[in-house]
Every structure is written in structure tokens, then in C-alpha cells.
């Protein structure tokens, strides 16, 4: 079966163009470890079980840098590492209970968000410009909330703590919008700058 050639090549595949199994495995492992590092930047909030972390920035950057397939697999590897008990989740935590907990929906959405951002890069080259990268990051974040918020609502219902949609948004969405915007702008500065540097090379 013929492999589809996508119009744009992600950053890491441009830096390391020769495709081998060893290259793909190393990029997947590196992507999962990068997200684990960003997850250690965590600020717990007293009114919600969802912390503010650098994790989402790591997820979306990995998707953009590795592309849809390797980005998805890197975040799948990350979830497997966490499920095995490695301290890769926010604040150095791990274990299957974390995936089944209130933030589990966000965690399970990580591979999907990385895959989406990677696909946007491969199809449209959005990471080559500031506003394109910003759009890709915001769409990736939106997907995280589309999965994470219903999961959080179900968990709260199961725990007898669900206080309605307004309370849910106050716990799982509104406090995180400013940070998400800052992380999206940071990514929108980093990725096009990396491409300009490569162009000068």
C-alpha cells in the first residue's frame, strides 16, 4: 500500500530526515520524557483537583515537532509510563489511579491533542508562522477540554460533588484560560523561530 506523502514535514523529522525504527523509537521516548519534564511544573489550586501545569505546552509542542503519528505514539508512551507507576504525571505522580481520577480525561486526551496538532502541521504547515502556530495550539487545547471536562463532570457526579455546569467550568476551564493563552503564545514564538533558524542554516 502506498504511503501518503503529506505537504509539510514536522520540525524533528526535518532535523532527522532518515526514517528508521531506531529514530522513531528515540523520538517517541524523547517526546514522552519532555512531557514528563513539563508536568513537573505544577501549581495545585485549592478549589479544584485540576492543577495548573506546563504539561499541556509539552503535549502540543511534541505533537507539532514530531507530527501526528509519532506525536500520538509519544503521548501514548507517556500514559503507559504513568500507568506503570513512573512519576511522570503532574507533580511527580504516577499510577493507574491517576488516570482514573478527576484529571483522567485530560490525560487520555493527550495523544489525541498531540495527533491533532501534528496533523495540522503536516497538512497546513501551521507551525511556520506565529498565528498559524497559535491557532494549532488553541485547537489542541480545545480538544483537551472537550474530553477532559465531561470526564471531570462524571467523576464529580460519582463522588457526589457535581455542582452544575457553572461550577464545573469554574473548576476545569476558566482558571486555566490565561495560562493556556500564555503557553500558546510561547509556542507561537518558539516554533516559527526554530524554522527561521533552520532556514538560515
UniProtKB/TrEMBL annotation:
Gene Ontology cellular component list: plasma membrane
Localization of this protein: Cell membrane
Pfam entry (one): BioY
Major localisation: membrane
Topology within the bilayer: Multi-pass membrane protein
Keywords: Cell membrane, Membrane, Transmembrane, Transmembrane helix, Transport
KW Secreted (keyword) present: no
Gene Ontology MF terms: biotin transmembrane transporter activity
Transmembrane segment boundaries: 25-45, 57-79, 99-121, 133-156, 168-191
Family, per entry: Belongs to the BioY family.
PANTHER family (alphabetical): BIOTIN TRANSPORTER BIOY (PTHR34295:SF1)
Name under which the protein is recorded: Biotin transporter
Source species: Thermus parvatiensis
Amino acid at each position: 500500500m502506498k504511503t501518503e506523502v503529506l505537504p509539510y514535514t514536522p520540525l524533528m523529522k526535518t532535523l532527522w530526515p532518515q526514517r528508521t525504527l531506531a529514530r522513531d523509537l528515540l523520538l517517541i521516548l524523547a517526546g514522552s520524557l519532555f512531557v514528563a519534564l513539563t508536568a513537573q511544573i505544577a501549581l495545585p489550586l485549592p478549589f479544584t483537583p485540576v492543577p495548573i501545569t506546563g504539561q499541556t505546552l509539552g503535549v502540543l509542542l511534541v505533537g507539532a515537532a514530531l507530527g501526528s503519528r509519532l506525536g500520538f505514539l509519544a503521548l501514548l508512551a507517556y500514559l503507559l509510563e504513568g500507568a506503570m507507576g513512573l512519576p511522570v504525571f503532574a507533580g511527580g505522580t504516577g499510577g493507574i489511579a491517576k488516570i482514573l481520577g478527576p484529571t483522567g480525561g485530560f490525560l487520555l486526551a493527550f495523544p489525541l491533542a498531540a495527533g491533532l496538532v501534528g496533523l495540522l502541521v503536516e497538512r497546513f504547515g501551521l507551525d511556520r508562522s506565529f498565528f498559524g502556530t497559535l491557532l494549532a495550539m488553541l485547537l489542541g487545547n480545545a480538544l483537551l477540554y472537550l474530553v477532559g471536562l465531561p470526564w471531570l463532570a462524571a467523576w464529580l457526579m460519582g463522588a457526589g460533588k457535581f455542582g452544575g455546569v457553572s461550577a464545573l467550568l469554574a473548576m476545569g476551564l476558566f482558571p486555566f484560560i490565561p495560562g493556556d493563552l500564555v503557553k500558546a503564545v510561547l509556542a507561537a514564538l518558539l516554533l516559527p523561530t526554530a524554522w527561521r533558524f533552520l532556514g538560515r542554516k
